[in-house]
Structures are given as structure tokens and as C-alpha cells.
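Explain the record.
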Amino acid sequence: MSRRRSSSPSTSTDAGSATPRNRTPQPVRVRRRSFGDVVKAFLAFVALLVLVVGVPLALAVTRGWPLPATFEPMEWLRQDISASTFLGILTFVVWLAWAQFTACVLVEMKAALSGVGVPGRVPGAGPSQLLARQLVAALLLVSATAAGFAPGLSQLGQSLDGNQRPAAAAAQQTPGFFAQQQEQAAGAAAAVAEQASHAEAAGSDATQRGDTKFYRIQPPEGRHHDSLWEIAERHLGDGRRYKEIFELNKDRAQPDGSRLSEASLIRPGWIMEMPGDARGGDLVEMPDEAPEVSPGVRQQIHDYARTGDHARGGGGSGAADVSVPTQRPAPAPAPANDGAGHQRERQHATPAHDSSAFGLPEALLAAPLLAAGLLGALGHRRRQALWQSAFAGIGGRRGMEPPTPAGDALDAQDALLVGADPEGVRLLDRSLRGLAASLAADSRPLPTVYAAWFGNGDLHLQLAQPSGRPPTPWQPGQDETFWVLAKDDAEQYGDSDTAAPYPGLVSLGTMDGSRLLLNLESVPGLVTLRGDEADRAAVFASVAAELATNGWSDRMTITLVGFGADLTPLAPSRLRHLDDVEALIETMEAETRQRRGALGAAGHDSVLTGRTGPAQHTRWAPHLVLLAAEPSPEDAVTLAELAADAGRLGIGYLVGTGGGELPGAAWEMEITGDGRLLAPLLGLELDAQLLPAAQQRAVVELFVQADPERDPDGPDHTPPFLVDISEQGRPAVYARLVGPYEIIGLDTPDDERSALLHEALALLLLHREGVHPRVLSSALWPRGVTDDVREALVERLRAWLGTDPDGTPRLGTDDTGRLTLSPSVVSDLDVLRSLYHEATQGKGVDSRAVRGRLLTDALVLVRGPLLADRPEGRYRWLAHEIVDAQLPLLVADTGLALAGFHMEKDRAEKAIEAIDAALRTAPADERLWNELLRATHALGDPERLTALAADLIGRGGARGLPPRTEALLDELLPAWRDAVAAAG
């Protein structure tokens, strides 16, 4: 279809050319048809009539039926090739070309008139189908109802009667997208053109007189509802000016007695006062020159006018203008509620120059889902490194602590801790898996989801097409293509082993407190991103990092082309880097063929029908392609052909472009230099989620440092804080964290703040390298807190800890602004680490007696798990820590070292006592059980060894014994299987 533009006179041609365009037919605003449009439509009709009807008639009259009357192939081959034969062959070719073109016309007409799906591809009909599409588009522009299917944005805010509860009210204010819209017929378009022309003249005159203008909210038409954004876009030239309309009408009594309190909650029949420069579109003079407006409406407008500021001396004359549209343009997003529930989002959106950010990377602070994924993956990597190091042997350990980051890497780690929203990731993951499980239980297929809006725990899914009523506790949204789940309802879902239904969802940015996640694998075609290279790279890096580490996906392949070779450490099993577009095309052609064949063999129409059903298989995992380098025209055509069927196959394409248009683009976006992600024809203007180059390098450095394969034979790592374990090193404040939490040396604060101060001190004791103030406040108040509350807590904590004898505060601040504890504030975990380090790397190395005493003292400190009696609902930040893995390993190492110390002197019973003490804190450590088997074997008591083997088998359950333990039993007690079976 030809490109259509808004008729708003305030939008210049230059401005319009600078915005990205969606090349798939869009549900866009219908402009007034000009005489040229009518001429084009007439010529298109004549051309179609000649090509579709005239050509076969002419062939039938001049040449007749092209095929011979009899079927004798051998006789045909023996005939001479004459001019008549040649003309017959040529006639047959022309008939074939006509049939192909006619098929193209029918396909394009069906797609345009139905408004469902992109036009199908007629085999081998590239130029013919393009010509047919242009002719059909020109014809339907003024002479038929036409609808396009493509990503579009529609407003939520008007719910279906009776299907929404108060808990989901805020959710209904969130914008959704990919709406479908029917354009009006030619008669309606002509009427609108005439009315708009009259309205422009009336609006111009009214503006010169300074008259006040009014607009009456229109009732819904189909699936679309009026919104302040689209009113501002239509009459003020910019949808972002909706706030001006909101301020003019806020809290004023409407004809139905209610009042406007939130910009997204407007009702049909309400009156809106407009800014003085409102014009264009369908504004008409009121009341005398608007005969189509009923007397009742005129009276409502006059009554409403008396409630505004202009009625108290701020306005002009009593005459007014009112907008009475008969044609509704494509909807644009209404602003979401910005209540207290979005405090986390506002905190993340702190401007970079704001002092409250303390210099932390703003890009990571503003990306809670990305930060949670990175933080979870980093914690997993560090735990993996700890366990691999543990099983490498006591002598070759890298140390109990991961390397302490510094510089940009430390800032990035702090930003991840502050910005991460693991609760949001948990809700999103459980909601999606719960939906898949509910549909599978009802034998219903998964609907195709194009995108999700996620804000304040409420989740909105935009479906490609109506899929019936959603399963409980999901609710219908504004129309049949929206499914909504409120946060309170999402809490009903627990952990599920259902496969992740939509692993291709990835965050693009935020809009009015809600986060947009696009399902890359389901978009019918290419998604393109244009803008400066550095800005595009920041978007691509963010998308790649989130896809590689998110918590709502099971498995996927992410192919990076033209960027991201250094991102591989984030997820080596997911990320794959290719050097050029040629290699990508070769790879994707093979995979496209393979997936088509697999779907056909399995009898599935798309990956969704096989992903969560009984036939779950890795071949249904998505493959997402991120191409940062702009392809050549030839490669772009090939990619468009591959992407045409990609949504069904679970393959998604995000392609960068410097400014040119790419064929087959279903959604075109632009990233601006100020971090805005724009798609005007979709009504999208987001605060983009970015991962700039500096933060990208810092995050990668964190993962590289945590790599378990990195320098495995390096020197032992010294704990970040060593305590003076001599008699002279008695601390001023001693906190017992290993077991029940106790503090010695401080008075107990008042009951109201005691728990908060204890939690803050525990966090500082576990991070002797220092804690950023934002990290501290984020740990204590996950939903955000103001600067003054945070600063008051720090001062209260400083006063509680007091000062050392030399007057130095025990809570200080280092050069980077991080909070640190003085050496006189010590925890039992610090002492435990110091004793083990001194026994294995210090004085205990050269003195056996010293080593035994130090190890014994260390094991005595172990009274149970870390912070064993912590109250429920607090200390949630421990989920980000690896101390839960460090402490059992440290205790196990101490027990093993002490057992080895006793076994050197054949004191097996003493060794067993040491191992039993360690097992109380580290019961899952296989090394302790193996050492216990060796010590028991040294006693020379086969019955006791057999009883221990039976106990181990009982603990193993269905999983059985670990391979190392089985091999050790085969060595120590060859007949253990028969002995255990006999013992029963």
C-alpha cells in the first residue's frame, strides 16, 4: 500500500521524513483523499481490469485454447518447429503469466480486505506480486474497506464490562500493541475530508479570536478507544502534549458527575478543554456552526466551560470549539498510572547527573530485568567456580572468595545489585509457565504472543489473534487480543516444570512506568533498528545480554553478527558469534530447512504447538539472530525471504541499519542520541534499555573473573579481611553470624529500628571491601527509598557503632564513597576465615601443633547455617550472595583439614568427630562423606563400614550414590552391595 500521512497541519514534511517507518501495512490514520488519489485509483482499476480480464479475453479471441486437442507426446516431438508452434508455446507462457498475476491479485485482495495476516507469497511471482500489491493498494485507498496486519499500538484503559477486578485496574492503564483496525469506506472518507476542511478553517478563525476549544470523548469504535494521546496527536500535532490537556481538565466535574484524575482513565461523553493552539483534523465551531452537535451536548459544553480557569477570568469569549470526529485514527498509547506502585521504576530512572546515583552506571540501574538476569548468571558462575575449585583438591584451591572487582567492574556490580528486580523475574517466569500449564491441562494450544507490557507486577500479553477466554486467573483485557494477569493473581502460581512458552521475550524499554518486552521469535518478518552505530550497538548489547541470562527462558541459541564477540563469557552455551552476513545466511538457510522439515514430520503448524506439549524437544527452542551490520541489498532480500516464515519456526531477526530501508521489515524502530526508542507509526516512544560499551566491558569483566576455567592453578586467594587472632587482637564489636545472630560489645537499639540496624550491619560484615550506599538501601528497601531515609539510617548506624579509642568512627567512607567497617568490628565468619587461612597458609604450615590448634578452634566457631534465626521477609539480599555456598565449603575444608591432621597419627575416631562436626553445616559435601568412609575403614570394623554405606544409600534415594563414592566403596569394601542388601 502507498504510504499514508496524518493530515495534521502541525506536522511538517521534514519532521515526518526523519522518523522510522513501518513497511508492513499499518493501521494508520486515514488522511483526506485528494483528486490525485482518485485518479490513481481509477488508473489502478483500469490496469487491473485490462490485466485480469482483458488479457484472457484477447488471448481467447486471437489464439484460442493454447493446448492441443490430443495428448500425443511422441508425435509432438517428431513435428517440425514452425512459426505456429512457436506462437503456441508463447501463448501458453502468456497464459501462465496471466494465471500467476491473477493469483497475486487474489492473494493481495484477500490480505487487504480480511485484515488478518500478511499477504501470502505466490511462488516465483516477485515482480508480479509487487505490481499486484501496488495496484490493489491504490484501488483500495479510496474505493474499498482495507485493513492491514502488522505491529500497531492500541491503548488499554477501557475494560470489558464485568471482567476486571480492582486489583487489575492499574493494569488496564498499560499500553498494549499489535492492534488491528478497519478503515472506513470511501463515502465516510469523503465526508471526513469535507468536515476536516471546514474544521481547519473554523479552528484557524477561532485561534485568531483566542476562543476556547473543547473536545468530546468519543465512544469506542470496534476495538479502539479514544485517548488523550491520540487527541493531542490529532489536534496538537504531538501525542506527547497529552499532559497539557490533562492539566487543563484535571479534577473538573464531567457531565456524568465524575472527575478526571488520571490521564489514562477517560470515558466516552466527557468534555475536554483544549489548548489554544488546537486545530486541524475535525475541529468545528461551537455551538452555532456545528449543526451535527445535539442541543444536549451543546449545553454540556457550555456548563463545562463555566468550571474551568477561563471562567474565572483566564479565558476568552463565551464561544467555543468542539471536536466531533466521525473517523477514528489509529490509537496511540495512553499514559500509565504513575502511582506509588511504580516507585522502583522511578528510582531506576534517576538521571545520570543526579547526585543520588553516586556515579553508578545508569543503564544498569534502569534495567531491572536485565540486571536480575546478569546477577543470577554471575552468582551461578561464581558458585560453579567454587565447587570446581573445591573438588580440585585442598592444596590447589583458588580460594574461598571470588576476585574482588575494582573500578568500572565494581561499579557495574553495585549497579546490578541496586537495579535488579528478581521478584519481577520470578513473577514473569511463573506467570508464563503457569499459563502454559493451564492451557495444556485444558488441551488448548498456546496463543501466539507478540509482546508483553510488565509494570508493577501486572502482566499484559498482546496476542496475534483472538484465542478465546484466558484460563483463570488470567482476565480478558480491553479486547479479545489482550490477556491480563494482576500481580496478586500471579502469586497463585508456584514453580512449574513446564517448558518456558515464550523464551524470546526481551526488554526494549519503558513507557510511563511499564516495560515493553517484544517476542522476537514471533514477529512476522524482520525487526529493524536504525540510528547511529554506537547507539544501535548499545541496544543490541542489551538485547543479547538479557536473552543470554534471563530467568524466563530454558534454552535458546543467540547468533550475533557484526558485534558481540566479547559477550560470549556471559553465556557460552547460548551465545554464538559469526563473522559476516554470508556465514549467517548459509547457517540460517540450513536451519530454516531443518525446522520446516521437523515441523512437518512432527505434524505441528508452529513451534508453539510442540514446545510445551508431550513432544517437547530441543528443536523447538528459539533461534534469535542479532545482526548489527547493515546487510547489502542482495543479502537483505535473502534475509527477508528467510524471515517471511520465521515466526512459525521460532526464529527471530533483529537487524541494524544506518538509515536505509530493508525489505520484509515488519517493525521499524529508531534509536536516538538521547536514548529514545521510536516507532511513530506504532505509537511507541520508549526510554530505551541500553548497555553502552563501557558498561558492557565492565559486565564482561565480572564474568571473566568468575570463570571456573580461568587460571585454575593460580595462587591461593587471601581473604579480603584477616583478623588478628592473637590474645591482643580482641575486637571492640563482635558479631556471631554463623548460627543464631548475636552482637557482643554494643547496646541493643530501640525495638523499632533494631532489626533494620542488625540487617545493615550484617551486610557490611559480609562485605569488608565496602558497600555502596545505594546497594545498602536497595538491600534493606527493595522497593526503593528516598535519599533522606537512607542517609538517616547511615547516620543512625554510625552512631550505634560508635568510635574507636582514637576517635575514628567505626563506620567510615572510603575514597569511592562506599561504607566500610573499621578493623575493630569483627564477625565470627571473619575469624573462621582467618583461622583456616593461618592454619593452611600461615604459621600452621611449618608447625603441626599450631595447625591442629587453629583448625580445632575454627571448627568450634561453627554453630549452624549463616544467620540461622533471621526473621522471615528480611535478608532477601542473601539471594544475591554466594556466602551460602562459601560457608559450607569453608566448614568442609576445615573439617577435612582437621581430619587429615588426625589421620596422620592414626586417630581415626578424632577424624570422625571432626567430619561429623563439619557435616552438621555442610551435609551435602561429597568430600566429607568420602573422608568419613576412609576414617571408618581405618577403624577395621566392617560392620560399621557396612552400616555407613547403607546410610549413604538411604540418603541418596533414587539418585543413588555419586560415582566417586561408589568407586571408593568398591575399593574399601568390595562386597558392599551384597552386604548392604543382606543388612536390609
